[in-house]
Amino acid sequence: MLKFFSGIALLLLALTIEFFLGSLGIYLNLVFAVLIAFAFLFDFLEVLTFVLFAALIINWEPGFSTTLLIFILIPLALYLFRKTTPSEAIVGVAIGVVAGFLLFYGIATTGISFLKSLGFFIDLIVGLAVGELTCILIA
To answer: If you write DSSP's letter for every residue of 97-128 in order, what string do you get?
Structure first.
């Protein structure tokens, strides 16, 4: 139970930091990185709860978008990856963050032009750091 509440606290912290940085014009996917790490640390129902809670907070507007669907499905798919591929959580999180960000950006931007963007690489490096830190703090 302590692990679950620690997850809630980390998710709320990531949401707060992401919204604060967004108000300064700095856009990073911290919450997405935390959710990917959670896919390697929690059970399915807990991951589903975290993902749906984050999606509800991030997408406060009524309506549903393809980007939100991708945001929800990638951590859930990575949970299935974790169950079918034996590895240490810290290694799985690194692979998951890289794969998740590539998929998210690739599908959301409908192409690979994001690979030419410095913003993507900064987001990826920060996402890797946040994901690994989450893994260390929760595990």
So the answer is: HHHHHHHHHHHHTTSSGGGG-HHHHHHHHHHH
- The torsion region of residue 70 among left (phi > 0), alpha (psi -120 to 50) and beta comes to alpha
Q: Examine the pLDDT at 40 and tell me if it is beyond 90.
A: yes
Count of residues in the chain: 139
Domain count for the chain, please give it.
1
Q: Give the relative orientation of helices 2-23 and 44-58 as an angle to the nearest 10 degrees.
A: 20
Question: Scanning the structure block, which residue is given the tokens 């949970």?
Answer: 79
Domain that holds residue 36: 2-138
Question: Under 8 Å CB-to-CB from 43, ≥6 apart: which residues?
Answer: none
Question: Nearest CA to 9 among 123, 130, 138, 131?
Answer: 138
pLDDT at 24 over 90: yes
pLDDT in tens, 52-74: 999 999 887 777 788 889 999 99
pLDDT of amino acid 64: 76
Asked if the model's pLDDT at residue 85 lies above 90, the reply is: no
